[in-house]
Task: structure prediction
Amino acid sequence: MDIIFSGITGNGTDKRVCVSFSEKGRTAEGYVPACKIERNDGFTADEVRQMEAYLEENKYLIWEEAKKINPLRAMWKD
Result:
């Protein structure tokens, strides 16, 4: 499974990181710190629960790594 995440988006108390999961044409998207999958295309309910558990267990690490992402630099990177 491929997992990618954005930099931190939003402002004030509405900051979040988007986390996307993909595997064999199936996709899902959730957010940290909420740790909820908000879009799902093809994963089972059990798989969604596993992804939400992954987000909960790794939200600190995901957040710390997202802080390092410079959106302008990422946009122009080859």
